[in-house]
Amino acid sequence: MSVSGSPSRTKGSTNRGALSVPPQSWWSRLWSPFWALPLASIIGAFCLGIVVPIFDALIAEHVPFLFQGGDDGARTILGAIAAATISVTGLVFSITMVVLQLSSSQFTPRVIGSFLDSRVAQFTFGVFTGTFVFALTVMRSVGRPDSDSPVPQTAVSLAFVFVLASVLVLLFFIHHITNSIQVSKVLADIGDHGVGRIIDLYSEDERDLDSQSWQRPSRPRRIAVYAEDRHGCTSQINFSHLVALAESADAVIEITQPIGRFHAEGQLLAEMWINPLQDDDSNDGPEERERAIAKRVANCFWLEAEPSARQDPSFSCQQIVDIALRALSPGVNDPTTAVQALNEVHRMARAAVLRTEPASALRDDDENIRVIYQPFGVGVLLDLAFDEIAYYGRDAPAVRARIGDVLDDLSENCRPAHRKRIAKKRREINKIFAGKTPE
Fold first, then answer.
1. How confident is the model at residue 66 (pLDDT cuts 50, 70, 90)?
2. Which residues contact residue 215 at a Cβ distance below 8 angstroms, ignoring those fewer than 6 apart?
3. CA–CA separation, 184 vs 348, rounded Å?
4. 88 near 128, Cβ under 8 Å?
5. Fewer CB within 10 Å of terminal CB in the chain, N or C?
6. Which of 211, 268, 262, 204 is nearest to 233 (CA)?
7. How far is the C-alpha of 243 from the C-alpha of 371, rounded, in Å?
8. Band of the pLDDT at 3, cuts 50, 70, 90?
9. Lowest mean pLDDT among 76-85, 207-216, 384-393
10. First vs last Cα of the chain: how many Å apart?
11. Exposed/middle/buried for 57, CB within 10 Å: 0-12, 13-18, 19+?
12. Whether the predicted pLDDT of 4 surpasses 80
């Protein structure tokens, strides 16, 4: 089974393209919400606050330097700890909200997700809320007549240790916040993620050079796959599952839009080219089986409110460009930040032109084409990285000079297949600088 226009490939080629970056696992998605880690800390602290007082009598006699006060002293300490930690939790929440507001207004709203994904902020909330819940839970055990130890010395001492840990975490959180709102740090973090994804998706293998325009397979049956009642940007696609589905049905799946694009309800997601299904032993007819296959294909597309940089380096590039455009706006007029943004897109573009861009077809183990998609190629990267910055920064000498330096470096160090694209982009940029609209 073949597709016309496909190049010859050696089995085991290194350019796996989109298959190199699998979608987020269910375990990662479970811990991805901002509230997941604090909630786990609350549950763990509650359980610890119940278990530790039960074994307090067994532990206290073997551990020195524990709390030696009475019931009133224990209640006072635990009450002070609970009041202080919940107050500081409110402070941490306020700081986080201010940082999110500043990042949205000063940089771009699209970087808010990066701040919310920060494990430092989540861990800080978890430590303070966990300490608060632990202190309240232990307070229930103080002075209980049915307890072997009316004052849970180990639990009170442990609460004091949690307070010391909370103070250290607060200091680290403030240090993290002051660094994270620096524009150079924001740009570097986004650039690191974008470069990493390009390295994952692109290939070092010269044999895979250039991705051809694949013709549609010569199969008589077309199955359209729609978004049905879902809408949003394609944040992730389970490419390996698509390849397996196409292989099992002896079909070819063509994804109609690049990853990251928005889909409205009922919009076409993909086309599946397949030989007509024959009747089998099941009670379902060919049409019912085709609808079932189409639904399984549609479930491989994750539609969310915002794109994700996990499989789409263009989202990282767009974040950097947005920061540069905000810096070049008349109300800000900060060409230095725009130059810093160009440094990061330079890193992404350099990583791409030193490698082979992903092929537009994914194959099974027998080297048969199973999925055709639109990868993030060098041409798309150059357009996204430079066009808007060149247009809005054409009156800033620093921006013009930096774009020229970047294109010079890319042209000198790229693979031969990318040189024409870089030369074309240079001509387009020169037209933009001259006040003309590129073709």
1. low
2. 3, 4, 5
3. 16
4. yes
5. C
6. 262
7. 6
8. very low
9. 207-216
10. 39
11. middle
12. no
Angle between helices 153-180 and 183-201 (to 10 degrees): 90
Residue type present at position 387: D
Instruction: Give the DSSP H/E element, type plus range, for residue 277.
Output: none
**Nearest CA-CA partner of 205 in 17, 65, 67, 390:** 17
Compute the distance between CA of residue 96 and CA of residue 87 in angstroms, rounded to an integer. Answer: 14
For residues 127 and 342, the answer to whether their CB atoms sit within 8 Å is: no
Q: What confidence tier does 111 reach under pLDDT thresholds 50, 70, 90?
A: confident
3-class secondary structure, 230: coil
For 419, the token pair is: 């040189």
Q: How far apart, in whole angstroms, are the C-alpha atoms of residue 290 and residue 394? A: 53
Cα distances (Å, whole numbers) of residue 27 to 32, 33, 35, 299: 9, 11, 15, 18
Q: How far is Cα 309 from Cα 213, in angstroms, rounded to an integer? A: 25
**Dihedral pair phi/psi, residue 203, rounded to 5°:** -120, 150
User: What are the sequence ranges of the domains in the chain?
Assistant: 1-16+183-439, 33-181
Instruction: Report the Cα 66 to chain-centroid distance in Å.
Output: 45
Residue among 399, 151, 319 nearest 407 (CA): 399
Distance CA 363, CA 298 (A): 19
281, 275 contact by CB (below 8 A): no
Q: Which amino acid is at 325?
A: L
Q: Does the pLDDT at position 12 exceed 50?
A: no
Q: What is the DSSP letter of 364?
A: -
Look at residues 255, 249, 258, 253 and name the one whose alpha carbon lies nearest to residue 268.
255
41 touches 130 (CB < 8 A): yes
* φ, ψ dihedrals at 233, nearest 5°: -85, 145
Query: φ, ψ for residue 389 (rounded to 5)?
Result: -65, -40
Give the residue among 438, 422, 342 at the shortest CA–CA distance from 378.
Answer: 422
CA dihedral (410, 414, 419, 424) positive or negative: negative
Q: Which two tokens stand for residue 96?
A: 């986080």
Please state, in angstroms and rounded to a whole number, the distance separating the CA atoms of residues 297 and 4: 24
Cβ–Cβ < 8 Å for 150, 144: yes
- The per-residue pLDDT for 218 is 59
pTM greater than 0.70 (yes/no): yes
In angstroms, rounded to a whole number, what is the distance separating the alpha carbons of residues 206 and 216?
26
Question: Which residue carries 């819940």 as its tokens?
Answer: 133
**Amino acid at site 3:** V
**For residues 198 and 35, what is the distance between their CA atoms, to the nearest angstrom?**
30
CA 384, CA 321: separation in Å to the nearest integer? Answer: 8
Residues 6 or more apart in contact with residue 10 via CB below 8 angstroms: 207
